[in-house]
Write a structure and sequence with these properties.
- This protein is an alpha+beta fold.
- The protein has 11 helices and 15 strands.
- An 8-stranded mixed beta sheet has the order 2-3-11-8-13-6-5-4. It has a 5-stranded mixed beta sheet with strand order 1-10-9-12-7, with no helix packed on it.
């Protein structure tokens, strides 16, 4: 005799496969004219209740998520970035050296890809692209088949390091912009790591290069209008597993950061880039820096939300990582065990997005 739970599970798997087989993602659902969120996207009550626990970024007149001007004095720059990284793991930077015109064109080109005619976009759909030699792939929800509920977004993913991407792997509609952005964001990451390293009392070049920044991935996300935004989310609460993330977002908004048990709206600033600390950076800093827990709410607006996140992590998967020796003492012993970076990646990719699960797993 088949139980109701088994029937529901079977039906869910069937509906997930039907959605995935369209090869058109969430935007395909929206284009079909749906007015209700399909049940595979409906999140459990405990997740939806969390949507109400939000405070404004300027709550009590304080700018909780700072905007750091990279034209500040060196001392101000190191101090400001350190304070933000120890407090909540998120900050924005302006005057960062990346032309704002490039940022605007990149957002337009990514939006243009996601709004290609269905037959063109279907050619790029590949859930298993990362296990092939291809440098890019389009899909919806990397954890589609093992998360409790799917999220309301589509993604065009790129592999930008250790080796630079083959230009022919990049869809033509955004090829030039992605290639230029790759060069600029890699330069910026090196600069940021110098400042973050100094903030820990280390030499500027202590955390640069392939052992810390060699593996580079990029996710270009598209969050279409959601007809029932209180029933689903854009991306579930999580922290990024690697060292550092550099995020470009448009002006639609929706990114939220968790601080002291509440969610803070991270207000878009035109021309700014959002920086957040990853789990591995929290671990090697022995909790001096904090990986920032964040999420994106489902988009209630007619205008789609576009974001471009670049994830920097070690380029040597079998290297051993743990708290840096310089940051361990009798007064502050190591808080984490040592492990291969490949172990962290395998764990991240084998489970759904879930809070700060990575740092908890490796903590002593």
């Amino acid at each position: 005799m088949t139980t109701n739970n088994n029937v529901e599970e079977y039906d869910r798997r069937k509906e997930l496969e039907e959605f995935d087989n369209t090869k058109l993602g969430v935007k395909g659902l929206v284009d079909s004219g749906i007015t209700r969120v399909p049940r595979i996207f409906q999140h459990p009550p405990e997740t939806l209740l969390e949507l109400d626990r939000v405070v404004l970024d300027d709550d009590n007149g304080q700018n909780l998520i700072p905007v750091v001007d990279m034209n500040s004095t060196h001392q101000e720059l190191v101090g400001g970035i350190r304070e933000a990284s120890t407090k909540l793991g998120f900050f924005q930077v302006i005057n960062h050296g990346v032309p704002v015109t490039l940022l605007d064109e990149l957002v337009k080109s990514i939006k243009a890809f996601h709004e290609l005619p269905p037959e063109k976009k279907m050619e790029c759909y590949d859930r298993d692209w990362n296990s092939s030699d291809k440098g890019a792939g389009f899909f919806s929800n990397h954890d589609l088949f093992y998360s409790k509920a799917a999220s309301w977004r589509d993604t065009l993913q790129f592999r930008l390091g250790p080796l630079s991407i083959n230009p022919n792997d990049i869809p033509e509609v955004c090829r030039g912009e992605v290639m230029e952005w790759e060069k600029e964001v890699k330069k910026l990451s090196e600069r940021l790591m110098e400042l973050l390293s100094e903030g820990l009392g280390l030499s500027p070049d202590r955390l640069k290069g392939v052992p810390y920044l060699g593996r580079v991935g990029m996710g270009a996300n598209y969050y279409p209008h959601c007809p029932e935004p209180t029933k689903t989310i854009g991306i579930a609460s999580h922290t990024d597993p690697g060292i550092l993330t550099v995020l470009l977002q448009d002006q639609v908004g929706g990114l939220q950061v968790k601080y002291n048990g509440k969610w803070i709206d991270l207000k878009p600033v035109h021309g700014a880039l959002v920086i957040n600390i990853g789990d591995l950076f929290q671990i090697i800093s022995n909790d001096e820096y904090k990986s920032g827990e964040h999420r994106v709410i489902a988009n209630p607006f007619e205008e789609p939300r576009v974001s471009v996140a670049v994830f920097f992590s070690p380029g040597m998967a079998d290297n051993i990582y743990g708290p840096l020796p310089e940051l361990i003492s009798e007064e502050k012993p190591a808080l984490y065990k040592e492990f291969k970076f490949s172990d962290l990646v395998a764990r991240f990719l084998s489970k759904e997005l879930e809070g700060k699960a990575m740092t908890s797993h490796f903590r002593l």
